[in-house]
Amino acid sequence: MESDQQSVEYRARVWSGARRRLWHTSTDGTVGERLRELADWAAGTPYGDGRVDTYGDAVVEELERRVAEELGFPAAVFFPTGTMAQQVALRCWAGRTGNAVVALHPLAHPELHENGAFETVAGLRTVHLTDEPRLPTAEEVRDHPEPFGALMVELPLRDAGFVLPDWDELVAVVEAAREREAVVHFDGARLWDCPAHFGRGLPEIAGLADSVYVSFYKSLGGLSGAALAGPDELVEEARLWRHRYGGQLFQQYPAALSALRGLETELPRLPSYAAHARVVAAALRDAFTEAAVPWFRVHPEVPHTHQFRVWLPYDPDALTAAALSLTEDTGTTLFRRWFAAPAGGPPGMAVTEVTVTAPGLEWTAEDVQEAVRDFLTRVR
Q: What are the residue boundaries of the Aromatic amino acid beta-eliminating lyase/threonine aldolase domain, all occurrences included (predicted)?
């Protein structure tokens, strides 16, 4: 009998080998392929002839400089993980404000995916401003009954469907936090995706906050790693805490190189991905309507970034099997894994995430609709 791990590895091989797909992930391909791609790219840049880093110098320092420049902050520091970066950022701010309470959304990454690290490791306590699947409003920030030292805003809010407020709403939220004398920290794991929605550049968006965390493997396709950007004094203290947390790695040049590649090759393309995600989302809605699917949802209806969610009224394992069958038989990947609705979600529903990157730009609306029809015939 095939083990769960064997199933995972088999699906990964099939989907990464698809001839047509809407997106490629940083986990697609083999070790050799990924290393050769990175080496080939580096060979055509000044980084290829540079020396490897030791404890965060050389190419890692160049990455930090580039991130600070992209976001319009005085300084930035590289971290091996975003989990570590954000714990460090918020505990540094807690020391400055004298208040270890962090206001954030219950769907924020630290609440859902980090096993209580804010409380158990960083000594922070969290409060929630709203339970609605959206970012909090200025009124909710202003009217919360308990003092908090920092407001953490995830842009976009991934587990609500990669959603963003509009620009005026975001500005009002930040101003409301300032009225309460709270610092503002952006969980910007996917901040790179935001300019197309807001119609503003990265420095203007990031400049609303006191500090910003960004990821290098989300949106930019890097191997791993993150950065914390902010004032010089915060970044210098963060370097101390990075060492205390065990994040002062001996060498990180492959991760740093892949991050620089993402900044140079993927970052300029993200607006085109977001624009085409709207085409794909509309085509999915049209195809599900035409097929008379009893209930479905593409959320947001008009995607805010190049990623969005799809909900269908079928068993998630059946949908995953149909997605796999489509790729096995046709070489086309429309969807990948499906999951049961999270607690509190509609019963009997399954959800998946759809991303549009470079391969997806070749898909027309008709291509999407044809793939949906073929996919639905395989759902059992």
A: 40-286
